[in-house]
Amino acid sequence: MRRLSFPLFSWVLAVCLSTVTSNSFGTEFTKLIRRVPESANALVLVNADKLYMSPVAVSEEWEKNREERYNAGLTVVPPSADKMVIASQLDLEYMHPTWQFALVESEKPTLLATVARKFGGVLDKVVGMPAVRLPDDSFIVELSETLRGAMAPANRQQTSRWVGLADHNLSPYLQDAANFADNAGHVILALDVTHSITAEDVAHRLGSNMDVYGDILQKSPVEPKELAELLASMKGVMLGITFQDQAYGKIRIDFGVDATKLEPIAKPLLLAILHHRGAMIEDFDDWVLAVDGMTITLGGKLSSSGVMRLSSLIELPTHVLATDETANAANGEGAQDNTPPTMVEATQAYFKSTEDILKDLRRHKGQGKSIGTYGMWFENYARKVERLPMLNVDEEMLNYGSFLSTQLRNASMAIKGIGIRSRPEAMAAASNAGGGSINFSSGFAGGYRGYGGYRNLSSSGTGTTYLAARAAGDSPGMAAFAASKDKMRQQQQARVQVRANEKAKGAAEAQQIMGQIQAGQAQIRRNMVEKYKVEF
Q1: What is the C-alpha to C-alpha distance for residues 84 and 395, in angstroms, rounded to an integer?
Q2: 3-state secondary structure 282-315
Q3: DSSP 3-state assignment of 240?
Q4: Do 82 and 215 belong together in one domain?
Q5: pLDDT in tens, 361-380
Q6: According to the model, what pLDDT value does residue 160 have?
Q7: How high does pLDDT run on average in the chain?
């Protein structure tokens, strides 16, 4: 089953740690929002009408090339969509959806009989509404002449309950997301994580990744226990993208308590999370942080590369929802405009799309030091390749596309495997350097036992935890904290060295895979030029 991808939010959840305001966005989307199943905890709103009227869209003629941009993976907006809502109920521990949902509003009607015939679906009715059940385990339902919805998996009872109730109530946080956009707001992503994480979870995640967060935590003005409790109070995350003369983005993180104390470490901590999760975008380095009570924002300019990467976070429950099978076309009107492309045209378009997808990744070729921070995008771009239109595309080119998506996933695994390979060696190195590991979470009742509680043993053999030592205010306690801090520094240095070695190995492997992709691309280009006698 296709999955709705929200890795952006997993960046924040990784340590248990976006977006403009006013009511017009929410007002325009009110009717659509009411149709979203109320158990949703993840939401995406796209105002395509306004997006394509933005200055940058007008100057670059996005409207003229909507279908080409969509097929090339440069936008998540279906060619005929005026507004789009995507939602999901995510298992927040594993970031996998229980169900996926989407609404697309368009002035162009869709004839489901044509959709069923073209994609091998079966016509149906759900609560009296025309529908088609598709082979990819999804339903498409015609809610009105201008509104179609989709749900996956194709659970008929669940779909019937959704269709049968036209007025759902989303969580307060997601309802706020619809209101946190103004006339310039074009894309809003939101995740409700209220009451989903505990301070013990946060403490364990921080403590088990001291090689990543250690330097930042040592500079924190917030005591570890208070820091963990603050981060665990997080209510949700939003991401907003606005298109003006260029794209601008803002990440917004909302907490249940005052977050002012986090200001000195908020940006380095967030960027460390992104680096660690392989989800970094270079634009974030220049974004500006702001803290206002219980809200932290980070925002700035977005490059075309940044927009493309963020668009890869969003997927429809079924790609068929993006097709434009209009009634007029089905009745034979406008047949010339709907004639399928010839094989050479379809194959050229497919190859051009793979070039566009690879162009962004090539920007980082040779940057062995930083390639590990982009691992998530390899996986996302592999899915982009798999979603490219295949109708009338040469079989050899499709085989190349399969090779490409596989190799991109191999590169992603090479990078993601860094943490798995380095953890045992890092633990051993830290133990040799400082006599054990730091138990960041032992200040909580019972500590965190999910993966075993690690203790830092002092030189005298008595158990002294980092949290307890730091919390002590008397002289002996401060001396213990100093000793603990010194051991932590030694352990951290050992872990950093091990991780650096593994990063170099993973990056080298990913670079080798990229070299194989480049060779494959050159070969398929030669083969296609020779076969069709036209330029590719």
Answers
A1: 33
A2: HHHHHCEEEEECCEEEEEEEECHHHHHHHHCCCC
A3: strand
A4: yes
A5: 776 544 444 565 667 788 88
A6: 94
A7: 76
Q: Let me know whether 89 and 191 are in one domain.
A: yes
| Helix (H) / strand (E) containing 29 | helix 24-33
With beta carbons less than 8 A apart as the criterion, state whether 418 and 502 touch: yes
Together in a domain, 411 and 306: no
Domain boundary among 291, 311, 331: 311
The answer to whether the beta carbons of residues 54 and 187 sit under 8 Å apart is no
Confirm whether 330 is domain-assigned. Answer: no
Closest CA to 496 of 205, 209, 202, 204: 209
Prior bond of 340 cis (ω within 30°)? no
Q: Length of the chain, please? A: 536
The β-bridge relationship of strands 288-292 and 138-142 is: unpaired
Strand pairing category for 129-134 and 138-142: antiparallel
Residues 76 and 224 in one domain: yes
Give the tokens for residue 181.
């956009």
If one counts the domains in the chain, the total is: 2
Cα separations (Å) of 220 from 247, 274, 432, 467, 519? 33, 19, 27, 13, 48
The predicted-structure confidence for 449-504, as pLDDT tens digits, reads as follows 332 333 332 333 333 344 444 444 444 443 443 455 566 566 666 666 666 677 67
| The predicted structure's pLDDT at residue 340 | 66
Q: Which residues pair with 241 in a beta bridge?
A: 187, 249
pLDDT of residue 267: 94
- Has residue 183 been placed in a domain? yes
Q: Characterise 57 by phi-psi region: left (phi > 0), alpha (psi -120 to 50), beta (else).
A: alpha
Q: How many CB atoms lie within 10 A of CB 337?
A: 9
Give residue 94's domain range: 7-311
CB–CB of 91/39 below 8 Å? no
Quote the CA–CA distance of 332 and 526 in Å, as a whole number.
Answer: 38
Instruction: With H, G, I as helix, E, B as strand and everything else as coil, classify residue 524.
Output: helix
Quickly count: other Cβ atoms within 10 Å of residue 426's Cβ.
25
* C-beta separation of 229 from 187 below 8 A: no
**Type of residue at 188:** I
Tell me the whole-structure pTM to 2 decimals: 0.71
Neighbouring-strand partners of residue 234: 255
pLDDT at residue 11 is higher than 50: no
